[in-house]
Write a structure and sequence with these properties.
Two copies of one chain form a homodimer. The first copy, chain A, is α/β, with parallel strands linked by helices. In chain A, 50% of the residues lie in helices and 12% in strands. Chain A has helices at residues 10-21, 35-43, 70-76, 92-102, 146-158, 168-190, 195-199, 203-209, 216-225, 227-249, 253-268; strands spanning 2-6, 27-31, 49-50, 60-63, 83-86, 109-110, 112-114, 135-138, 162-165. Chains A and B meet through helix 6, helix 7, helix 8, helix 9 and helix 10 of A and helix 6, helix 7, helix 8, helix 9 and helix 10 of B.
């Protein structure tokens, strides 16, 4: 079995390392527009070599490049005989672009999103345990080939993922709240942070802003592809923030306590925190 | 030397453990309104015993109870001969209340704020290394006794802290941005988080919301005591968030990229991240 990984950074590199270690593929080739990153991926044993295009004898293609490149690659690979799967943080937005270009989804394209990001990127951040016990959402359509879905599901499980299925538009709404909005808030928060603030940053600041170090190359296309859901999540947040401001301004002790208690109880429901 | 710690939770308990281990005090007594917490602090060897009031032979009193209790304790201890120091996250707001009650600050009261919080609390969270390499801000006034400041500074250094001085109102403005605002944002963000969101929470969500698990007993008085600075920080944030929303709604690729780049570069300036 031969895998081609498009994008040899954190996600693609980690899948390549994990898949190799699980014995899923005999060889792994990379497609990487960034020459230095490609050479680094080879040096680190993530891929056996870098190629310019998907060879005809490949069995599977993993699209792990930034979100806006996924639809163009799926369109370009429409005639490819193997399985194509991706890792983009936006699903409905990507599938709409593919449908607009092809009229329908290629049956052997399995849309996936492993919930295993990091503010780090590149081959140096790749590690074979990245997907261990992480949720992987697959969003197949009625057009999607069931055998391809089963195959890809098996691969994610083999690298440690917990696979579940979801409708693509629902997925995009959920991750708009759980992931895209927090990034937008962290980016916004950091605008007013100056040198004196950094000097007085403690652990809470570090944790809260960690995602704010993420790269624009990754996040700009995510925001743009999932714009309606991100704007809706943002407006929901703004309404709650407006409520918090009013409670504080009015010095409403009971209301503010209940507001904090709601948040705190909700966060404590999250199991297995480190 | 005898120390009395008022509030035997994370901060007070950690200082007691660290001070004992550094040999700063021969014995340490606790004042703790929560009976179970007090017994737990004794069981864990954090304090030698629980008392109802500060004994006359005590040399120092550490106020590590919630922020709104600090000013009343300082007022109550106005006639105490030893050193009094605190750990509240608000300084100017507390000093105003003390001045309102006493007309001036007791000279042997040294206002302190160790930047070493956690969403955890209680004696079970206390650990002697909590202040290692953490910044400790002291905000003495012209009325404050220089020898007392030097003594308290020495204690914080002995438990690993990096002490620096600051004007109390400036301190409150800085921590409003670095600490109080992020907590308010996390509490607000968590309002719209439901069970389905928690099921899809990844590492970014965990880090971003960790401070949102903090207790209302601690945060309600901080927000109220530092209300003007928190509202100002909040309004600064809201303006930036409004800008982000407009950039996204207008699909302004260049503007949004620059916005993310600014945030990301700022966060990456923070050294020694884990």
């Amino acid at each position: 079995m031969r895998l081609v990984v498009i994008g040899t950074g954190l996600i693609g590199g980690s899948f390549a390392l994990a898949a190799r270690s699980a014995g899923l593929f005999a060889d792994v080739l990379g497609i990487e527009p960034d020459g230095e990153r490609g050479r680094d991926a080879v040096r680190r044993g993530i891929v056996d070599g870098i190629v310019d295009d998907v060879p005809d004898d490949a069995d599977a293609v993993l699209l792990a490049s930034p979100s806006h490149t996924v639809a163009p690659w799926v369109v370009r690979l429409a005639g490819f005989g193997g399985i194509v799967f991706d890792t983009a943080s936006v699903k409905h937005g990507v599938l709409m672009l593919v449908r607009a270009a092809l009229g329908s989804l290629p049956p052997r394209f399995v849309p996936c999103h492993p919930l295993a990001g990091s503010e780090r990127s590149g081959p140096e951040a790749a590690q074979p345990e990245l997907f261990r016990d992480r949720r992987v959402v697959v969003t197949p359509d009625l057009e999607t080939d069931a055998a391809a879905v089963a195959q890809v599901t098996g691969w994610w499980r083999a690298v440690g993922g917990r696979v579940s299925a979801m409708a693509p538009d629902r997925h995009d709404q959920v991750v708009a709240v759980t992931s895209h909005l927090p990034h937008l808030l962290a980016f916004s928060y950091l605008q007013q942070v100056n040198d004196e603030h950094l000097l007085h940053a403690a652990g809470g600041f570090r944790d809260f802003t960690r995602i704010g170090a993420s790269a624009a190359d990754m996040w700009l296309p995510i925001f743009r592809l999932n714009r309606p859901a991100v704007l809706a999540a943002l407006d929901g947040f703004s309404a709650d923030l407006h409520r918090a401001r009013a409670l504080l301004e009015q010095d409403d002790e009971t209301g503010l306590r209940s507001f904090i208690d709601t948040a705190s109880a909700r966060r404590r429901e999250l199991p297995d925190d480190d």
